[in-house]
Amino acid sequence: MLSRILPLCNHNYYIERVKFGVPLDQVCCIHNDIPGPLLILILKLNKEGPYKKDVFRAPGHQANMKKLIHFLQTGRLVNIDNFSVYTIASVLKKFLRKLPGGIFGHEAESRLFEIIEKEDTEEKREEINRLITSLPPVHQHLLVLLFGTFRAIASTSKKANTGMTSEALGVSVAPSFLQSCVSDGCKIAKMEDVHRYKVATMIMKFLIDNFGVSNLFGRENYEYYARISGRVLKVEENWIFAFKYPPDSFVSPISSCEECQSTPTLCPSSASEVSSSACKAVDKGAILADDVYARLSMSLEESFFKDSSLLMQISIHLAHAFIFN
């Protein structure tokens, strides 16, 4: 992130600009990925949003929204702690609404409205997976980060008493993702507009509820989400996505048993693919991973491992992962 900061002679520091109202590929043209400032906004919501009441529903502070948008568009450094999650969520929704054609694009958006009407859930998942993976990589990355954040918020809504279930989130963010569900400036809503908004909410709810399904966003996108957010992501009952290890040139190879105990990027839980001892280690990890969004640090609790030397070795591996990944 710091490598993207450009010092100027007057000692002001500038970072990547986040343009509003232009196609996403122009926003991400410098590094062909999500700009650092936009990524920071999403990660703050990912971390703090699950414990905030009415996040994405309650409006942000108008003056602070204008200030934050100005900083983003001019590339000025900003102290993100000065802005509430409500202000950040409102700015993010505005950024998405301003994307020409929306984040999905007109054709893919129309296709989503057709897919959601199908009765077979598995068929809907497969078709949505094909649709999402056909989008440009930057669109896929932004979508998986946003819907991973929505899922984290929805999964804790009851425990944290935030009121932001998947349905409530769908109602709040549908116009930002599916622009065709909003009437074209007409003050009086027609019945077809109301119906389309309802269907758009169903689409958003389906994507949030099925975020942890392997054939929805795809393996590469789930790996990206786990790497960027720092969360351990349990996909269905078979895979756990976490940080990747650094290349073999940086660390010595580890045994399959140690690899399973230290929660690698893709850890199979079936007995046919790992030894019985490794499976036991995964089962222990799965107990704490029942919370899909348990922090990676939880997987390193000392209760996981009886051998302190093994714990030290795994800590070294993860330190390399933070440095080189």
Question: Features of this protein?
Answer:
325 residues; mainly alpha; Phosphatidylinositol 3-kinase, Chain A; 2 domains; two-stranded antiparallel sheet; two-stranded antiparallel ribbon; 15 helices; 4 strands; 53% helix; 3% strand; disordered N terminus; disordered C terminus; GTPase activator activity
- Identify the CATH architecture of the largest domain: Orthogonal Bundle
Biggest sheet character: 2 strands, antiparallel
Class from secondary-structure proportions: mainly alpha
* Number of helices, counting only DSSP H or I runs of 4 residues or more: 15
What oligomeric arrangement do these chains adopt?
A: single chain
